[in-house]
Structures are given as structure tokens and as C-alpha cells.
Write a structure and sequence with these properties.
Radius of gyration: 23 Å
CATH superfamily of one domain: Dihydrodipicolinate Reductase, domain 2
Shape: globular
CATH architecture of one domain: 2-Layer Sandwich
CATH topology of one domain: Dihydrodipicolinate Reductase, domain 2
Distance between the termini: 48 Å
Mean pLDDT: 91
Strand order of the largest sheet: 1-2-3-17-16-15-14-10-13-12-11-18
Number of helices: 14
């Protein structure tokens, strides 16, 4: 099916506004499948943008996929990662020459500038150093969130970006997801009247919580970043973007309730592989998920190609013996809250609540936007608009039809669409193409820092921008 031949532009009168929607199909009188990757009026690039990826893990691999799908627009010419498996795989995928492969981020900058941009997808505590050095050397930057682990470092990077005039795109990918773009459009054009309040749920999903925030790289806030920043600065950012007013005050509550030593069942052991008598019935069993079901094994740096199932299993078992991914979820040195609620007051009395919950059977953000003349209710699969004046409902379902590079991209398709805008911004040296330039993305980080201070102090705090 040719998307361009199918695409029809439909103008819908919603509330007091006219909203233009690129329609791929119509399910019923009030339900539309809309274009998940709308065409933008970009200037021609004229040449291929080159980039070096620092951090070849999950996020670096995702962003690198854009270069593999659109090699005339983006080429990855270098990689830095101390993990040999990740370094080798990334270099092979992108055909990176030996002299452009590095072990550490410092090694990259011992060379004179040899690319247009740097993609920083390192662990949270390794964002500040390479970002500041890249700016100093004149690179444009695609920076994984969070910007940095501390308020001072975030502000330092912002100042350096302003001083050097370089582009720093923060990977707040939800701003590029078609679902949230449509939500933003409806609110901005006045479809629901004046915005009054927002409710936003971030269901982490119980197994993802155990994997990333109990066993994984973000299990301890002291060695990474607080979970409100590590997981939900995306959500604070999208709420701020939708509301489109300065944040004023914040109050937060939350704690680590379940993944604690006192909740370990009788018969459990330090590792799931150590003869735990309740392992088979435990919902968080590392053996069940990594070894038997082979879920999320790429995060354990386990090969998925060119290897037999038995060989792969042996590698997984070794990982469960030697890494945190094999440890009992009740006996880790984790400190991240497993439930966290935040209330925010914006300018003009607009309020918002964010609830981040570990114990759900599902993922995918849920959002309710309430206005004086209508409301929006959505779960990233569909967005339902109700007009209070007429009682009419209109349903929008985002979909990217027959565009391979956007399928299963993650974050509602926002990952690849963000990289597309970054490439265009670098090619045209125009940061206005980006909706997540550091100058606007930094506010949600300040909100997260103040939320954590509020949670610990049990006080309502003013947000200082």
C-alpha cells in the first residue's frame, strides 16, 4: 500500500477550532486512523550528517537504527563503549573503521573533530563530561535524558550550549510521538477550551520495574539518578509541553514499599539460581524471565544471533551467577521508590498530577486532559476527544503505514521521528526544528529535582527556573 496515495487530509471542526488530520483510514463515523509520520516541509539536506555514538547500549542502538534505514541522511562513523561485545556489534552494524572505535568517551575527544555530531547514550552519570567536551570542540549533540544527574550540571550544559551556539537535542522522545503531537495540537488549537487540569499515569509494569529499577542500572539513586528523573522526566516534560505554561509549585510523595529484605519469602536465596525454593512461583524470578522465556536478554549483553540456543542459555546462566540481574529482587541494594505521586501547579492556576506506579500488568502512558469546553482521554493507542457543547466524541488512532524505520521504534514512534528532526536541525543549523532543544527541555529536569526534594522534605516547594 502506498501511503502517499492513500493519505487524505481531513479538516475536522472540533470545539471552536479546525484541526487538520492526515487520515490513513476511517473505522467508523467518529474514528480515524491518522498518519503516524507526517511529511514535514524540510529544506534539502544536501549531504549526509555524520555522528559518533558514545554508549552503544540499548538507546544508542535505537538511535543508530535511523542511520541504517536512511544512510543518505545519517552515517555513524565512530563508536565508544568499554563493553567489547557492544562495541564489536555496533561497529559491525555500522561498518565503523578500526581507528574510529574507542573504549572510553575521553578517547573520542583526543582526536580532532571528525564528525558533525555526537550521540550521547551513556549511563546517566556519564552525560556531563562528554557533553561539555563535545560542546567545547564544536559538535552538535543528541543527548539521552536525563541531561545530567544534578541541577548544577544541567544548568552548566545549558550555559555551554548557549555560549557555543551548538545544538543540544534532549531525547524527550514523547514530544515526537504522533499520539502526543495530536494531543498537543488539539489543546493548542482550543478544542477543549481553556485547559484546567491534567492527570497522567506512568505504569512502569512490574517486570520492567524489577529489571531496570531493582536489579538494573538505575536500581540505586545514589549511583544513577532518582527514579522520578530516570523514568519520569519524560512524563514531567510531556505534561509541561501539553500545558504550555510555566510550572510554579510542586509536591511529591512516594516510597520503596515492596522490594525490601523484610518482604523476601521464606526459602528465598541471594540469587534465583542458588536453589531458591520459591523461584518457580515468584513473579520476579530471574530464571523464569531471562533463562526460560529469554526476555530482555539484550540488556544483559547476551548475543541473539550466530549462536545456538544452548550456547545462549549457558551465557545467560553465567550472567545470573555473576551480575545483579541474577539477584533476588528482595535482597538488592536498591533504594528507588516503587510508587511515586507528584502534584504540580502551573501558571494561571492549571494543575497536573503524575502517578508513577511499578505494580501494573501493563505499560503505556495514560493521560486525561480536562478543559472548560471538552476533554481528552488516551492510552497511546487511541485518543478520545469529547466536545462538551455537542456531546460528540471523536477518536484518533495513530499509525505509521508501511514505513519500516518507524515500526516498533518505541515510545509511540517518537524515537525515529526525533532523530529525523535532529538530523534536519544539524543539516540546516536550525534548532527551531526541534521541539526538545535543551533550552525548553531543561524545565522538566528542574521539576524532577524539586519533586525529589519535596518527597524527602514532605513540603510543597517553589520551582526555580
Amino acid at each position: 500500500m502506498n501511503r502517499r496515495n492513500l493519505l487524505k487530509t481531513l479538516s475536522l471542526t472540533l470545539g471552536a477550532s479546525v484541526v487538520t488530520t492526515n487520515v490513513l483510514g476511517k473505522i467508523s463515523e467518529d474514528t480515524f486512523i491518522f498518519d503516524g509520520a507526517p511529511e514535514r516541509d524540510y529544506k534539502p539536506i544536501g549531504r549526509t550528517i555524520t555522528a559518533v555514538t558514545i554508549g552503544a547500549g540499548s538507546r544508542g542502538t535505537v538511535y543508530g537504527k535511523y542511520a541504517l534505514s536512511r544512510p543518505n541522511e545519517l552515517k555513524i562513523v565512530g563508536v565508544a563503549d568499554p563493553n567489547q561485545y557492544r562495541n564489536d556489534k555496533y561497529a559491525k552494524d555500522h561498518n565503523i573503521v578500526k581507528e574510529n572505535r574507542f573504549q572510553t568517551w575521553e578517547d573520542v575527544f583526543r582526536r580532532p573533530k571528525f564528525a558533525d555530531a555526537i550521540i550521547i547514550s551513556t549511563p546517566d552519570n556519564l552525560h556531563y563530561g562528554p557533553c561539555m567536551k563535545a560542546l567545547e570542540m564544536g559538535y552538535d549533540i543528541l543527548l539521552e535524558k536525563p541531561i545530567a544527574p544534578t541541577e548544577k550540571e544541567c544548568r552548566d550544559i545549558l550555559k555551554m550550549a548557549q555560549k557555543t551556539g551548538r545544538i543540544v537535542a534532549v531525547c524527550h522522545v514523547l514530544r515526537y510521538a504522533p499520539y502526543f503531537v495530536k494531543m498537543k495540537e488539539l489543546v493548542s488549537k482550543g478544542a477543549i477550551g481553556e485547559i484546567v487540569s491534567v492527570q497522567h499515569l506512568e505504569p512502569i509494569e512490574h517486570l520492567h520495574m524489577a529489571h531496570a529499577y531493582v536489579r538494573g542500572n538505575w536500581h540505586n539513586s545514589k549511583t544513577s539518578t532518582p527514579i522520578i528523573m530516570a523514568k519520569s522526566c519524560h512524563d514531567l516534560d510531556i505534561v509541561r509541553w501539553i500545558v504550555d505554561k510555566p510550572s510554579k509549585h510542586i509536591a511529591a510523595m512516594g516510597d520503596l514499599k515492596w522490594f525490601r529484605k523484610e518482604n523476601a519469602p521464606a526459602g528465598s536465596t541471594a540469587r534465583c539460581i542458588d536453589g531458591c525454593t520459591v523461584e518457580k512461583e515468584c513473579p520476579y524470578s530471574a530464571l523464569k524471565h531471562y533463562y526460560r522465556k529469554r526476555i530482555r536478554i539484550r540488556h544483559l549483553d547476551v548475543p541473539t544471533e550466530g549462536i545456538t540456543k544452548e550456547e545462549q542459555g549457558n551465557i545467560i546462566l553465567e550472567k545470573l551467577k555473576t551480575t545483579n540481574y541474577g539477584r533476588c529482587v528482595y535482597k538488592m541494594d536498591n533504594d528507588q521508590p516503587d510508587h511515586y505521586v507528584t502534584s504540580i501547579q502551573f501558571d494561571n492556576s492549571v494543575t497536573a498530577s503524575l502517578s508513577m506506579e511499578a505494580f501494573t500488568s501493563y505499560g503505556g502512558r495514560r493521560t486525561r486532559v480536562m478543559g472548560a469546553m471538552g476533554d481528552l482521554v488516551g492510552d497511546m493507542n487511541e485518543l478520545v476527544y469529547t466536545d462538551f457543547k455537542t456531546g460528540k466524541r471523536t477518536i484518533f488512532k495513530p499509525k505509521a503505514e508501511d514505513i519500516e524505520e518507524y515500526k516498533d521504534a518505541g515510545h509511540g514512534g517518537g524515537d525515529m521521528l526525533m532523530v529525523r528532526d535532529f538530523v534536519q536541525a544539524v543539516a540546516n543549523q536550525d534548532k527551531s526544528i526541534l521541539s526538545s532543544d535543551i533550552s525548553v527541555s531543561v524545565e522538566s529536569h528542574m521539576m524532577a529535582f524539586m519533586a525529589e526534594k519535596s518527597r524527602k522534605s514532605k513540603k510543597i516547594l517553589a520551582i526555580k527556573l
